[in-house]
Amino acid sequence: MALVASLLAPNAWAEPGFARLFRGQYGYEPACGACHSEGGGSPLNAYGEAFKKAGKTANALRAIEPLDSDGDGATNLAEIKAKSNPGSRKSTPDDKGDWLDPTNLIPAEVQKIFPGVRTYKPLDAIFTAKEIERAKRLGVELGASDETTIYVPFDGGQAQGAAVIVPAAHEGKQCFLVVATDRGLNVKSIVPIATKEAPFADGGKIYPSLVGKHVDQIVVPDKLPPGEAALAAAAKKAAAILFVRLTKE
Q1: Stated pTM of the model
Q2: What would you measure as the largest C-alpha separation in the chain, in angstroms?
Q3: How far apart are the C-alpha atoms of 88 and 40, rounded to whole Å?
Q4: Residue 202: its pLDDT value, please?
Q5: Is 237 helix (H, G, I), strand (E, B) or coil?
Q6: Helix orientation angle between 129-137 and 226-246, rounded to the nearest 10 degrees
Q7: Which of the two residues, 201 and 220, has the higher pLDDT score?
Q8: Looking at the predicted structure, is the pLDDT value of residue 9 above 80?
Q9: Could you tell me the residue ranges of all domains in the chain?
Q10: CA-to-CA distance for 138 and 116, rounded, in angstroms?
């Protein structure tokens, strides 16, 4: 079985789905804050919600151009042409801010896990039928709603691991997890983010035995408290996403 190091050829990589569509339409790469309130993986902002509601396609981007999603007085198209953020009132055509700074193109939570790394390659996690079947063998159901972005940090020309952000839900409440691995695709860190809603208001608790396991060896223990079990299940799904996208049979 070949791991992430075997997938570093340029033709193996793709931009995140929204970013790919945005770049194709407007000619430059957007930061996560275009669609997300607190960076990649966090809840959608008004522009992100509008894009989602319109169908998440290139046509959707065009359809929401006349809107002023962030309510700052400039239409989405005017902001995009000026390279200001259509999803943030703090960024306007007259005062763009630093939303397109390279450090803002990768979620801050991911950067904290890989300190000192400045180069990342995003991999679009849109699942094939074969990948969905591989995930099922791990006990994980994947579908269109699970499509996301995998961030692979590079240092000295070598991949240093991988990270993905996934939602975790319990009793109608939701938070997000950053699940990161080392170069061997062993889980090195599971970090809850956007945990303002109960029952995740205390930051959540991650079952410790999940850290250190290879991404195809994650097991959710029986009889965990419900909130903790929801986090563990989300971590297992994240691990499965990394496994099916970064390894080959």
Answers
A1: 0.74
A2: 55
A3: 14
A4: 63
A5: helix
A6: 130
A7: 220
A8: no
A9: 30-104, 107-246
A10: 33
